[in-house]
DUF2851 domain-containing protein
Amino acid sequence: MQEEFLHYLWVNKKLPFTQLKTHLNENLEINHFGQYLQNAGPDIFNAQISINQQKWAGNIEIHIKSSDWYLHNHEKDANYDNVILHVVWENDTPIFRKDNSEIPTLELKKYVSLSEINKYKSLITSKSWINCENQITEIDDFIWNNWLESLFLNRLERKSEVIDKRLQETNYNWEAVFFEMLAKNFGLNTNGDCFLQLAQSIPFSIIRKESFNTENLEALLFGKLNLLDEDLEDEYYSKLKSNWKYLKLKYNLQEEFGLQPQFFKLRPDNFPTIRLSQLVHLISNKQNMFSQLILANSYSEIKDLLKSETSKYWKSHYNFSKTCKTKSKILTSQFIDLLIINTVIPIKFCYEKNLGKLNFEELVLLLEAIPPEKNSILEKFSEFKVKSENAFHSQSLLELKNEYCKTNKCLKCAVGLQLLKN
């Protein structure tokens, strides 16, 4: 038995509420079920009940066992002084207020039907991948589509927390924060944190000043990452190294940098040297890119703004001094899509929200124009006939799996709640 199931029973009124009695065999009526806020403090706020026709108004706390009250130290917490009813699955001990008066207790196991319990057990019984894998396609389209929107909004809200925090730290320097998020996502999963710290370690005013000089900007980023510390007989390497020494003195930059970029197990096109050069090329050739992206609304327009490639040297290199077959290393369409999904849309969301002009539907339409991502989670959903038609679907499904299915939050999921109601 889980406490969430008891919350579900209460919120959805799945009990014979006209026949209830307290643990002392007193007649209990629920006049108002209160608000389930899921915040700190009691589970249900502002409820109204009658016990033997005596009316009470206050809060309700829900537990598996009544002894959990003491296990959670509620007797020491003033937030629980106004609890008028203790709702439990099993009443194993009496509970008293600070004035030694006993808190009325409702023991639910006397009132919950076997069919309700069986539906709950069937839902939470672990399957091969997700609990509802055999029933998820039975959900009504209206409920499913609304749930996808909620999932995507939750995902954006969580991503925006990181951006909002960084905006406060930079006195709302939108261009600087955009550059940091862009750098992070150029690093992908392997080098994302390293690239983010790199971007944050150099004042953005310096990035902006040197953005007109590709070699200087490459020297800044490569030098800061300690990629210019060797003695190599390579003309371009030597030039960057010389530029780095000059820029370091000019801007009084600290040389120490804790993280090291990873090359191991990466495809050559994802080497940090290549991704940094593409990032530099993008910043150098698209001045005021943040403003342009904020104004751009169509998928094609945003995609054109994010097109980039490496500098000339990296067309014939993956590492310094090691030549390879010459080819243009442009950002692929799939990589640009990831930048839109993980950088542009969250930044747009934060920017519009800060202005009080959030157009959520427009962001959904933008995502719907992007092809779905491809990964093992989405492939598994497809096996259970839940397909992603676009990036809006794929982002929502990733949120569903990672934030609900993995942690068995079936009773906080629209799918799980609908299956229980059915």
